[in-house]
């Protein structure tokens, strides 16, 4: 499903869920060369009881929701502002919820409010993204 900017509306919502595994964390570390010990099973630091997942994985779920659901087609990320309130741990379920809060048809820009929740319903990430819609149907 690929939406044109004319098919999008204020208040439109899309959601995606995922549980990140130890393998996901290892692949992310290999790709980014970020081998922080906070992601390791044998090091939790003083603040956390178990390893956290890299924020980049949660951002990936946000991008997945954009590319598959809202708008679900070709677009370019122009701006991203995210605040990570609480860490996510390996095995936590995270849900990314994106809501259309502004549409600029003259520029083909859409602003999405981003909220991510853990399996307990706690907001763990909040912010917004601005995307440029590239679909052929957009004006």
TrEMBL record:
Family matches, as SUPFAM superfamilies: Thioesterase/thiol ester dehydrase-isomerase
Protein name: Enoyl-CoA hydratase
Organism whose genome encodes this protein: Mesobacillus maritimus
